Amino acid sequence: xxxxxxxxxxxxxxxxxxxxxxxxxxxxxxxxxxxxxxxxxxxxxxxxxxxxxxxxxxxxxxxxxxxxxxxxxxxxxxxxxxxxxxxxxxxxxxxxxxxxxxxxxxxxxxxxxxxxxxxxxxxxxxxxxxxxxxxxxxxxxxxxxxxxxxxxxxxxxxxxxxxxxxxxxxxxxxxxxxxxxxxxxxxxxxxxxxxxxxxxxxxxxxxxxxxxxxxxxxxxxxxxxxxxxxxxxxxxxxxxxxxxxxxxxxxxxxxxxxxxxxxxxxxxxxxxxxxxxxxxxxxxxxxxxxxxxxxxxxxxxxxxxxxxxxxxxxxxxxxxxxxxxxxxxxxxxxxxxxxxxxxxxxxxxxxxxxxxxxxxxxxxxxxxxxxxxxxxxxxxxxxxxx
Length: 386
Hints:
By secondary structure, the protein is α/β, with parallel strands linked by helices. The protein contains 11 helices and 15 strands. The protein has 2 domains: 2-72 and 104-298, Rossmann fold (3-Layer(aba) Sandwich), CATH 3.40.50.300; 314-384, Immunoglobulin-like, CATH 2.60.40.790. The protein has helices at residues 14-27, 43-47, 69-76, 78-90, 95-101, 107-122, 135-170, 182-198, 213-229, 249-269, 287-298; strands at residues 2-7, 32-36, 56-59, 62-66, 127-131, 203-209, 233-241, 274-278, 314-319, 322-328, 337-342, 345-350, 353-358, 372-374, 377-384. The strands form 3 sheets. Strands 3-4-2-5-1-6-7-8 form an 8-stranded mixed sheet, sandwiched between helices. A 4-stranded antiparallel sheet has the order 9-10-15-14. Strands 11-12-13 form a 3-stranded antiparallel sheet. The longest helix is centred in the middle third of the chain and has 36 residues, at 135-170. The two termini are 40 Å apart.
């Protein structure tokens, strides 16, 4: 069983890359499900078919679906949905507004995760590929399995105390059925999925980016937060690469700019494998075109494999009350290592090589507290948790 999640900034081509990967793996003989968790779905456009939350067989071995969170809530979470809607309407919201606001914070992420869990547990597929939402939404989604248990405990405790101490006052707001009974069951699903996502032989993440400054910065944030959650990044896919040269001066200036950013990508994501896809001259839609794109990107590599098996890239852990960022820097001479801070970036310079790491803002207080060098690894303690 394999789960592959494609992440990245909106507009970089995640859907196309995800769909091409799914098509290629399916044509190798494995049963593949590709699902989109993005609210602004475009997976159906990639395959030129109508998709729904029910998997549709696009071609032999290839199934596709688009998660519809609101429809799922109305169909499968009616008690919870009706409960919060009734509270909002009692407080003066009209029915339409109440229905729109009744989606509990985190519910969208939880439902998307449950779709992944159900697909992985079904036994119907060899590979599940997730065309994820843009970075911010996906980071919330990936943090949900850890945080859901905490919310369940807190809400469950609140519910018990509220019913025990103020039943007469809140009874008119409470559903006749205990909606909170659903939470322990979902919590078990979240724990199981969390285990799957952190099993590096089962689940890997791939970041899709373009050779552009803002896109690279966001991709680096993806790398940082995946390390924070203990998830494995096994490849970077650079999409929309222009030709090497052009007789047109305007186009050549864009090519020169891309060349600069391609070098930055190689430096920043080393030693991860980096796969490339050229800027297409026509839309990459339908299975045949998607399959060709996959062959261009991966060459003789099998996209279903774990593409990077060595974990020595960068890790985040807590040691003696401090968060510690560890970087794998083989054969580095200490005298040639320079570490600087620029905004929320940690810049590591070795000769002409520069690696940029985005620091989580919740850890950042404007100071780097010390630096220690241990053999081949530079260990940089980050600010103490506040």
